Amino acid sequence: MHIHAYEKIWLALSIVLILLLLGSVTYGAVGPGVAMVADSEAQIDANALDEDDRFAEPRVEQVGENEYEAYVVSYQFGFDPSPIVVPENSTVTLQITSRDVIHGFEVAGTNANTMAVPGEVAEITVEVGEPQEYGIVCNEYCGAGHHGMEGKLHVVTEEEFESEDGGDSE
Question: pLDDT digits over 3-12, tens only?
Answer without folding.
Answer: 889 999 999 9
